[in-house]
Predict the 3D structure of the following.
Amino acid sequence: MALSKKLVTLNVFACALLASQLAQADEPWTNQDWADNAWYLGVGAGRANTSIDKDRIVRSLMDNGASSVTFGSNERDTAFKLFMGKQMNRYFAIEAGYFDLGKFGFNATTTPPGAINGEVGFRGFNLDLVGQLPLTERFSLLGRVGANYTRADAHFSGNRLFAITDPNPTEKKLNPKVGIGLEYKFTQALAMRGEAERYRINDAVHNRGDVDFYSVSLVYKFGKPAYARPAAYTAPPVPVMQQDPIPVTVAQNPPPPPRPQPVSEKITFSAEALFDFDKSVVKPLGKQALDDLLNKLQGMNTEVMITVGHTDSVGSDAYNQKLSIRRAEAVKAYLVSKGIDATRVYTEGKGETQPIADNKTSDGRSKNRRVTVEVVGSRR
C-alpha cells in the first residue's frame, strides 16, 4: 500500500468552550521566569488522514488477469499522542512524544472472482523543536519541525496476493515531520492547543507518503511559581515647589500658621498584585493592597489622583493600549467605591509605550506590567 503526497487543506478548528470556569488558586503567580522555563506534559486526540494509491493497486490487479475491480478504502482513523516538553524561553521549546496514528486499509474484489484486503497501522516516537509567537497574553501561534521514528505494521489477505511473500510485514523508519497550530492559555499553567501535523512515513511494503494529524491537546506545566503577597511601593513624598505665601501682618493679631505644603506621592503596583492573568477586574488581594494605600492617605487632603496602566510588549499595540486603560479604570472604580471623589480621579493608559525594564527578559516584562497611582495633596 502506498501513501500519496497530496496536501490536505488545513481545516478550521472549532473548539468547544469549557463547561465551567477553571478554578484559580487564591495565591497569585508572580514568577514569570517559571512560565518561560517550565517542564510540561500534554495529551492530544483527533483525526488522522492519508491517501491510498487506488490507481496503482487496480492497475496491478488488471495486469494480473482481472477484467474488472471494485475498490473500497478507509483513509481516516482516530489518532492520539502523549508528549512532554521543556520550555527553553518564551519563543522555543523542545518536545518529545509518543503517537498512534491509527489504521488505514483497502479491500478490492475482482472479476474473475477474487479479492485482496490490506491494512496498515502507524505508531512511534517524535522529537520536535517547537516555536511560539505570542499574539496576546493568552494566544500564541505554534510552529514545529522535527523527526518521527515510526513503525508500520501491515496485514494482507485474499487470493490475489501475487508477489507478496510476507502477508504481515513490518517496517521501521526515521522521517521528518512538521506542524502548525494555535495555543490558548486558560492560566499560566494550563493551555489548549489546536494543531495540524504532517508525518512523512514508510509503509510496510517500502512505499513512502504522508499522514496528516489534526488534533486538540491539553498542556499542563509542572510546578508552581513563587508566591509573593501583593505589596505596594510608596515613593518618598516629593514637595511641590511653590512660592511661599506673602505674610500679612496685623498689629493686634499673631501671624496665621504656615499653609500646608502640597506634596506628590507615586505608588507603583505590579499587575500581578492587582489582577488575575490577562484580566482587568481587581482581585481580593489587589483590593487589600489598595486598602493599604487608602489607609496611608488618611489625614491627607487629597486634591488629585491619577491612575496609569502599563503593559509589557507581548501582543499588539492596540490590545495592550486597551488593556492598560481597562486596568487604570478598574483601579479608579475601586477607589471611588471606597469614598474617593470621582471628579478628583483621572485615568490614563500607556500600553507598552513607557517600559521601565527590558521587554526581552521575563523579569523585565514582569516589571513593565504595572499600575501607578499618583496622589497630589497636602498633609494636615
Residues 26 and 289 are 15 Å apart (CA to CA). The chain has a mean pLDDT of 81. The radius of gyration is 33 Å. The chain has two domains: 32-221, 233-379.
